[in-house]
Amino acid sequence: MKARDGMYIDGAWRPAAGQDEIEVVNPADEEIFGRVPAGTAEDVDRAVRAARAAFPAWSATPPAERSARLAALRDVLTARKDEIAETITAELGSPLAFSQAVHMGAPIAVAGSYAELAATYAFEEKVGNSTVYQEPVGVVGAITPWNYPLHQIVAKVAPALAAGCTVVLKPAEDTPLTAQAFAEAVHEAGFPAGVFNLVTGLGPVAGQALAEHRGVDMVSFTGSTAVGRQIAATAGAAVKKVALELGGKSANVILPSADLGRAVNVGVANVMSNSGQTCSAWTRMLVHSSQYTAAVELAVAAAAKYGERIGPLVNARQRDRVRGYIEKGVAEGARLVAGGVEAPRERGYFVSPTVFADVTPEMTIAQEEIFGPVLSILRYEDEDDALRIANGTVYGLAGAVWAGDEAEAVAFARRMETGQVDINGGRFNPLAPFGGYKQSGVGRELGVHGLAEYLQTKSLQF
User: Fold this and answer.
1) Which domains are seen in the chain, by residue range?
2) Where would I find the Aldehyde dehydrogenase domain in this sequence (predicted)?
3) Catalytic residue (choose from 91, 173, 212, 245)
């Protein structure tokens, strides 16, 4: 799509307050193919004021009508699926088939789920001699990342609108055209002016202004743990509600009774998906010592299939960051068995699918989020050892457990300190709560739990 030269504020595209722009680069060929305004604190203020003005009417809109608008949004996204997928591929570098299936499929499903929840959720209930009401928090500042640019927007904006909140979105600067396409879809779906507003810009400028703004009642952020801490501190000074979906270093635990071949192949696919740029990726594969050699061989063979199938990383900074982690892994004594730092192509921000063996729990590549196509394989001696390793990071976002007996896998998963665990390759569920323990965040997204984040409770006693 062609880049818009303004901000979507109060139901229309309006000129930015400043003249600075953000260049949009195709990570596959390093060519600039668009520019968007770099929003300022003034732009954020205009957007928040519009959201505040729209809040009384939207919060009073019957849930059935809010549901109808969300259903219309789902339908517009569905109709524009191929066009927006091409935009995501151009901005993010994701292979087009993956953009169509995942980058578009997931947000369309999530938008539909909130259309249904808006109509069916119990916003009012009787508790003894009280009536308890669930009411919208107010104006939400949504700050979203680049790795799943549309899904992360919909996962915040759809439940906020379903709850009766109004929204100001500050998307990642690497993928602003996807956010502009979403704003166009909101407009086409017929939402009232000011209910949704978009300000493109840099995190330290527009993002900070949004988090600090006195007119914002809640900040919902997805991104790095370091930035999440800053936003939490900023919001905390004004006692604003926050929802944070942060980093991960998820463990894929393969118990001895599991189908080793399937567990390894699915595990490698999980890490390489979206070029490794997934916060919930199972980047630590834990294998019993008796099966370790076989697992490494299987992982190397599986990784080789992705050499020409995965896209680039989002920008040069991210590519260099991932290469730095690979170099650190080698320096700390891990055994590089696939991939490495050598560029697989002359142009583009590509990193080869990389696998490390002989990784120990204290190594940097086993502790820190790399956000690239890098898998670390660790050995364990018994289940207690596996649990210690699995829980041995500051993160707790996701994970996986494989076992021949489902009950065995569930028993292990219940002891993991993480917000979501897939059992024997369990499929993604857009209605299941997603979010982390420990430094992986605060709050949940998706389904009824995601809707609850944007509500506050009032009780009347009779």
Assistant:
1) 7-246+440-461 (3.40.605.10), 251-423 (3.40.309.10)
2) 13-459
3) 245
